[in-house]
Design a protein that fits this description.
alpha/beta; 18 helices; binds iron/sulfur cluster; 4-stranded parallel beta sheet; about 425 residues
Amino acid sequence: MSIDAEEFLIPSFLNLNLKFFSAEKQIRKFRRHKRPLVGTILPLGVELVFAAGAAPIFPLRIGKFEAEKLLRGTRLATNILGSSLVGAGARMLQPQAEGIINQFLTEYNKNLCEYENKADEFNYYPESCFATRIAYGSSLPYRDLIKLFLAWGTRCGWFSQFYAALNDSIPIAFTDIPNSMAPHAREFMYEEVSQLINRLEQLTGNRITDESLREKILLANDIRKCYREIIYYIKTPNEMPLSPYAYMQLIALLSISFVDFLSVIKYFRKNLVKLVQELNNRRNIDYSGVPKLLIVPVFSGSEPDLPQIIRDLGGCLLQVDYLSYGMLEPIKTEGDIIRNYCDYLLKSHNAWKDNKTIVTSWLKTAQELKVDGIIFNKLIGCTSITPAYRLFKDRVQATGIPFIDIDFNRIGENLAQLKNKLASFIELIKKD
Ligand code: SF4
């Protein structure tokens, strides 16, 4: 499958990549402007952080990236040439574009490996899952910079242990999310969120007004809408806007960037809106014969080489957990804005609150996106979601959608075996 370098030179796509890689520079700027950094590993509560005038940061985004230099050069060139001349620019800039293509996930993955090693160095529980190991390994080195960490009480026990361990070095703001939408649960959620608001206000000295929160939620809703629209392109596979590889890169970029909105919500929204406009004008790639594979669960981690492997095997990988868990649904902006925010938190947690529910959420996504196959990502050490495997397998088999499971523990482990397994799976789908 050839790579079309031009599609990586869409200015808004480049801007998002560039911002993704610039966390260190952003942090220096936030410090100059005295905006406290608030760490987060889940895409929850970010609008509140912005409304308080603090800066959210997903620690996995921090690091030194070679790609930033390449991207900067390329963006400057496209600016000079003008967006209407990006096509001509693309030919001149092909070497950089290919460098970016090859480096985006490679470099991010390199960072993940380092954070995994750091977790070992910091003696974090070796028996824990990948997600909390890298969360710990990536957060602790920045304990002097991050002033507060958002911690959520969910169904996952390892998350709670991670927050407890982190609290020895970085103060956490713990917010419990109940497993119910009943009136008393909604009331409890309201109290929890009110406490979080107080904590953020104390940190920044700014009040979170209804208006400031509404403004951030409106921006975030636009982001969610664009993100959904990009995922939903796959519903019309005869008119996709990007080649499968570029599309997988974009989906990967969005899933990581969605955690902290790249620490600049307005910029993220502006470029994502522009990107969707540009993609809508490019919808002419036919994916017939390209198997669409849904992988679940992924927000706790997966083998980072998977998009590359699937691309080499001629497929397209869909990592869309946030869609399954309702996190891309808009938040109501009329009426009591804090209560609306609470309802959003409750609804998204309630979409994965127990194994029966999470299985239904995944299956709904698979059917909605009309995927050709499902990959179950068995996270070793996961005591919360991975046990849904058996039930999910049975439910998928009843639908007739081809299904396979793969194990994931550490980056790069058993890659050859993984490739062979996926190659046979894709062959099987193609023959059907
Ligand atoms: S859901 Fe599983 S993989 Fe994710 S943090 Fe919890 S235990 Fe780890």
